Amino acid sequence: MTPREPRLTELALIRALRERARQAPGVRVGIGDDCAVLEAPGGSLLLATTDLLIEDVHFRRRYAEPADIGWKALAVNVSDIASMGGRPRWALIALACPASTTMDEVEAFYEGIHALGDEHDVSVVGGDTSASPSGWVVNITLLGEATGAPILRSGARAGDMIAVTGDLGRSAAGLAVLERREAPARVSAEALAIVTAAHLRPRPRVKEGRWLAAAGGVTAMIDLSDGLATDLRHVAEESRAAARVDLGRLPIGAATRDVAVATKHDAVGWATGGGEDYELLLTCEPSAFERLRNGLGSATGTTLTAIGAMEPGAAGVTFVDADGHAVAVGPGFEHFASGARRE
After folding, report:
1. Predicted TM-score of the model (pTM)
2. 146-164 CB burial, b ≥16 within 10 A, e <16
3. Superfamily assignment of 10-145 in CATH?
4. CB 333 within 8 A of CB 275
5. 153-327 — its CATH code?
6. Does residue 135 have a pLDDT over 80?
């Protein structure tokens, strides 16, 4: 890279690909959202997404069993469908692994895929396999149905409330535990199980996404894969609005806080930049929030927490403390940052 060439970033690459993408009949939404929205014959809408997982970037074999890898590889795709309020249906699985991989390991990998797929009625309909010169590489393409109008990233408006399902930072806490050679002291076995499960086997919010999409009042939605700071920025940029988040309102569970104390990490930093929570981040009309919070809790048992608001102004995200002062927050995961890795 010469001094004049800009540094490669994930956002810059997406923008470049988006600019070069050819407009085609039947493409309602192309590059730039969680899923492409395609118009099938008869007018029904098909959702299409794909995700790539690479050993030592997204997972380590030291603590991720083949079944965990299969589960997570499908989960990250299912979460994309969930963020648009859709129903996941058909998966194509591509797996490359070293020649030393055993049949038992591959079978366990597919068992993990089918275990999650069975929960959401996802069928594996094809794929590909290959030898890998170094480490496992998994790519899944998932197709789903839009049961109503898909909820995009681009619909947020100034004045909308910003809200998230569930807790934040739990997956990052799990990663911190898994990366250690020994479990942190003074953290209960239950708390350790909660955070490590969140990292190894995330549970996509499919039921929640479909309920929210059908309920009315939700203006934009995205799943939290790269972290609140990064994913909310995507919503702000696509919606051409500013976002303001109150750090004191972020939902952080007791298990995550316990692990943060024991490992000398910042639980709020995990909540804003840890990533891989696969919760739903949404914006909604202010008048709809109470109805959505109460209805979602009744329908699914999942909490919905208001954490801020969209504002007029240039696209961007501001985090503030209890006194309303802006606080610097680190970015979420960036694939092309120096030394970037999930694990």
Report:
1. 0.89
2. bbeebbbbbbbeeebbbbb
3. PurM-like, N-terminal domain (3.30.1330.10)
4. yes
5. 3.90.650.10
6. yes
